[in-house]
Design goal:
single chain, about 150 residues, five-stranded antiparallel beta sheet, 2 helices, 2 domains, elongated, about 45% strand, 10 strands, mainly beta, Jelly Rolls
């Protein structure tokens, strides 16, 4: 087999023995299944385009199959939010925080970015949440919520 060739199931069989014999067949099947989904890209569905003051608001939500992911969320306030605010990734059903970012202020429509690497052992629905306490509802721009499977 040359270096530039794709490794086939037959190549693996030649290296590890007949598939289905012992644990090699199971391991190869699992490896093949895992490799086929690496790089799969997911985008969250928009739930809200503004955040009420003094409450946690779900801006976007997505459901991910079992696996390990790089998860990224970002948005920008349309207006200045000169008060406490945060953005959080959380998992359902109990809204357990995965990661949170709390900038000091969001002057001139500043935004927040957040990123995490997370393994889910069961299918997971995750939210991109925000909180702000400016005294009024604040619209958001440039909302992004994405995940890419890495294992």
């Amino acid at each position: 087999m040359a270096n530039s060739e794709v490794i086939t199931r037959e190549d693996l069989k030649n290296v590890f023995g007949a598939l289905g014999e012992g644990s090699y067949g199971t391991r190869i099947d699992a490896l093949e299944e895992n490799v086929s989904v690496i790089g799969t890209f997911y985008t969250g569905a928009t739930v809200a385009t503004s955040a009420a003051t003094g409450t946690t608001t779900v801006l976007s939500r997505m459901t991910l199959p079992v696996g390990t992911y790089i998860i990224e969320g970002s948005f920008q306030w349309q207006n200045s939010v000169n008060s406490m605010s945060y953005m959080q990734l959380s998992g359902l059903p109990n809204s357990t925080p995965i990661v949170r970012s709390s900038p000091a202020s969001n002057n001139s429509g500043g935004g927040i970015n957040i990123c995490a690497v997370r393994r889910f052992d069961t299918e997971a629905t995750i939210n991109l949440n925000v909180y702000q306490a400016s005294g009024s509802t604040q619209p958001v721009n440039r909302l992004q919520f994405n995940a890419v499977r890495i294992a």
